């Protein structure tokens, strides 16, 4: 393939078949376009909603104007630290392997130079249905902070988790951003860093890869649930081959000429 998708992500994933695998390097190093949604107020170890909650943070001070101004700081050539849950290798082992097995890293993860070509805010609202990363952990964190841990064995002290979570999320806005970036960019790290820059916390709750190189979602792709339909796969391969690879097109023409003769 031409570059992994995060477990949470959907969208374009370039797959190579036979000689097409030789072309994949073009897509690993090319520009990509994403639509990302972040939730303020919660930081996780994976920088997305699949991870474990690390901290909660205030959000009431965040305004749309502050967020718009902050996004400008993340446009252009910037330095970014990859997340622990990533496929990067350190001393022969994937970083996510260290994380999943609870193995200490042999050294710190070094920041890397990346480029954000464009970054725009599409939405900033408290009207959403996204949930906190870990309900139980949030409850324990908030109640312990307030020194108000109740005895669950006493029915009179029963906690209505739904009402508490609803109250916690009342002021926790989401933000949607459109990102065009260069190779090596982690959108999870971008969302995480935006939260820190705003003296809060944030993690990814939805991520869609809209474009990879010259391959666009829907225009040039097939749905995953169509993978068993060989005709659909062949037609997609033929379309991409003729549209995106001049050398492959020449080869197709040669085959056609031979058949005609």
Q: Could you walk me through the main structural features you see in this protein, from its secondary elements to its overall organization?
A:
- The protein has 261 residues and is α+β, with helices and mostly antiparallel strands.
- It folds into 2 domains: 10-221, Pseudouridine synthase, CATH 3.30.2350.10; 227-261, no CATH class.
- The protein has helices at 25-28, 64-73, 95-101, 135-145, 161-169, 187-197, 230-244, 246-260; strands at 10-11, 32-40, 42-44, 53-56, 76-80, 89-90, 93-94, 112-125, 174-181, 202-212, 215-216.
- The strands form 3 sheets. Strands 1, 2, 5, 8, 9, 10 and 11 form a 7-stranded mixed β-sheet that branches.
- Helix 7 (230-244) packs across helix 8 (246-260).
- It is globular.
- The two termini are 36 Å apart.
- Its EC number is 5.4.99.25.
- It catalyses: a uridine in mRNA = a pseudouridine in mRNA.
- It is an enzyme of class 5 (isomerase).
Roughly what percent helix? Answer: 25-40%
Find the CATH topology of the largest domain.
Pseudouridine synthase
Architecture per CATH nomenclature, i.e. the level-2 architecture of the largest domain:
2-Layer Sandwich
Work out the radius of gyration: 23 Å
- List low-pLDDT spans: 135-161, 246-261
- Rounded mean pLDDT is 79
Give the biggest beta sheet: 7 strands, mixed
CATH class of the largest domain: Alpha Beta
Query: What is the CA-CA span between the terminal residues?
Result: 36 Å
CATH superfamily of the largest domain: Pseudouridine synthase
Number of helices: 8
User: How many β-strand stretches?
Assistant: 11
In the residues, how many domains can be counted? 2
Name the structural class: alpha+beta
Element order, helices and strands?
A: EHEEEHEEEHEHHEHEEHH
What is the general shape?
globular
Strand content: 15-25%
């Amino acid at each position: 393939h031409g570059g992994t998708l995060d477990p949470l992500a959907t969208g374009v994933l370039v797959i190579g078949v036979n000689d097409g695998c030789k072309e994949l390097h073009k897509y690993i190093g090319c520009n990509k376009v994403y639509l990302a949604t972040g939730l303020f107020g919660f930081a996780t170890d994976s920088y997305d909603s699949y991870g474990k909650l690390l901290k909660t943070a205030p959000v009431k001070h965040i305004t749309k104007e502050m967020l718009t101004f902050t996004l400008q700081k993340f446009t252009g050539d910037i330095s970014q630290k990859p997340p622990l849950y990533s496929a990067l290798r350190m001393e022969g082992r994937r970083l996510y392997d260290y994380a999943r097995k609870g193995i200490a890293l042999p050294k710190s993860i070094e920041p890397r130079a990346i480029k954000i070509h464009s970054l725009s805010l599409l939405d900033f609202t408290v009207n959403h249905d996204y949930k906190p990363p870990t309900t139980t952990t949030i409850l324990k964190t908030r109640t312990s902070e307030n020194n108000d841990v109740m005895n669950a064995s006493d029915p009179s002290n029963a906690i209505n988790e739904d009402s508490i979570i609803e109250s916690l999320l009342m002021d926790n806005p989401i933000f949607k951003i459109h990102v065009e970036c260069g190779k090596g960019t982690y959108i999870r790290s971008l969302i995480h860093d935006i939260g820190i820059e705003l003296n809060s916390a944030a993690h990814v709750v939805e991520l869609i890869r809209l474009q990879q190189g010259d391959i666009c979602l829907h225009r040039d792709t097939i749905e995953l649930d169509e993978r068993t339909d060989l005709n659909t796969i062949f037609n997609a391969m033929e379309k991409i081959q003729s549209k995106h690879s001049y050398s492959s097109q020449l080869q197709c023409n040669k085959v056609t000429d031979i058949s005609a003769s």
